[in-house]
Amino acid sequence: MGSLCPPNKPALYKPRRPGETPLYKLVSSHFDEFERVYAERYQAEFGFWRPVIRESIDEYLKCGILEHGFARARCVKCGHDMFVSFSCKKRCVCASCHQKRVLIFAEHLAEEVLENVPHRQFVFTIPKRFRLYFRYDRSLLGKLRREAWETVKEVYQAVLDDKDAVPGMVATIQSFGSLINWNSHVHAIVSDGAFKKDGTFLALPKMAVEPFLKLWEHKVFRLLMDEGRITEEVVKSMKMWRNSGFSVHRDVHIPAGDKRGIENLAQYISRCPFSLARIIKGARRDDRSVTLRARRAMSSTAPSTTSRKISRTGSRSRPCRESTETSRSSSLWTFSLK
What we know:
This protein has helices at residues 22-41, 43-46, 51-60, 95-113, 128-136, 139-160, 210-226, 232-239, 259-269, and strands at 70-74, 81-85, 119-125, 168-176, 182-191, 193-195, 201-203, 247-249, 253-254, 279-281, 289-294, 310-314, 331-336.
């Protein structure tokens, strides 16, 4: 292999020490008990136990541990060698492996997928009373993402008065809030304009968010009615509320040519549900409390191995591989494992 060392200096490799993190200690000490009592204590609220959870945790507990396998790397120039432990490559469960996915995904978007045109971040959210439907039926999440795409496309085409013009959009489903609570919503990077069939880019004029919001609300209502989750009476009642709980946010603008801005935004919309830096103290066998730096209740968001959390649509649509908060905190929260 090529040289591992910089010229005239030995390579300095600092291996991760996952076994020393609060999350690893928490999971290794309490996960078996959690699995044993799940059906009795948590299934009614969070849904049935999915086998992928156990599988992902087992792999995570081996990640970065030399005893579970490693590769030996040797510099052909200086003879220096080192052991590199295998990784689990699991998203959402392992913050380290997830972050590697995030960085690769962000670079791929900035360098190979998105055109050199202005873009915006869109965030589509739904009322709290609807979120349970998506927790118990994960197939609805893909349909929710599709409604977000249809909303953007139809508004763009109406404003530009061109039914053939298509925007570019990369959308991710996020099912978590700041404390890993269940909060299904859609993040998207969207071109600030649309592309004609000949590749000509039509810039979108400045406009209010209301057309997107009204159409988004209509499409989600229709989706849940078609799925038999709500009735006309529910729709009529919610339309009379001062705040229905729907929102569309599109204030973040990335100018053309700002690849760093695109990478930062791509990392944000595909981030891991939690940060190791926010776990101040993990539960131990003699102390069953967890202190987390965040704002607000905790749940499990382990993904299905077959689910796709990221999609590309519109002018940049093509088959995509499966890919997968850093928020400023205002307080510390402590949870007890009862």
